[in-house]
C-alpha cells in the first residue's frame, strides 16, 4: 500500500487550510453584521440647489428625512420637485459608495473567491 497517512486524499495540511478558511469566513460574517448595524445608524446627506434641499438617508439607502429651506419654497412646485429629486440621487449615490467602500474594507486581505 502506498501513500500512507493520506486518509481520503485530504492530508493534515488541507485540514488546516480548511479550518483557516472557516475562521476567516466567520470573521467576515461577524464583520458584515457589525457593518450592517453601522450602516443603519449612519446619516448620509445629499443636497441640491446649493443646500436649499437636503435629503438624509442611512448607509443602507433608507430615507430618514428631507430638509427644505424656506427660500426653496418660493421656487415653485416644478423646480422644488426637481431639486428634491437631485438631492435624493445625490444622497443615494453617496450612500451606495459608502456601503461599497465599507464592504471592500471588510473583505480586503481575504482571498475568498468571488470577492
Automatic annotation (TrEMBL):
InterPro entries: YbaB-like_sf (IPR036894), YbaB/EbfC (IPR004401). Its main location: cytoplasm. Residues 18-45 form a coiled coil. It comes from the Bacteria. It is found in: Cytoplasm, Nucleoid. Keywords: Coiled coil, Cytoplasm, DNA-binding. Transmembrane segments: none annotated. GO terms for cellular component: bacterial nucleoid; cytosol. Binds to DNA and alters its conformation. May be involved in regulation of gene expression, nucleoid organization and DNA protection. Homodimer. Belongs to the YbaB/EbfC family. This is Nucleoid-associated protein NIES37_49770.
Amino acid at each position: 500500500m502506498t501513500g500512507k497517512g493520506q486518509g481520503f486524499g485530504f492530508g493534515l495540511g488541507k485540514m488546516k487550510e480548511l479550518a483557516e478558511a472557516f475562521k476567516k469566513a466567520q470573521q467576515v460574517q461577524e464583520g458584515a453584521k457589525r457593518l450592517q448595524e453601522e450602516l443603519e445608524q449612519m446619516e448620509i446627506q445629499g443636497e441640491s440647489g446649493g443646500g436649499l434641499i437636503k435629503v438624509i438617508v442611512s448607509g443602507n439607502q433608507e430615507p430618514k428625512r428631507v430638509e427644505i429651506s424656506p427660500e426653496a419654497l418660493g421656487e415653485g412646485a416644478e423646480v422644488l420637485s426637481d431639486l428634491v429629486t437631485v438631492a435624493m440621487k445625490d444622497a443615494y449615490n453617496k450612500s451606495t459608495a459608502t456601503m461599497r467602500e465599507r464592504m471592500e474594507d471588510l473583505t480586503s486581505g481575504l482571498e475568498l473567491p468571488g470577492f
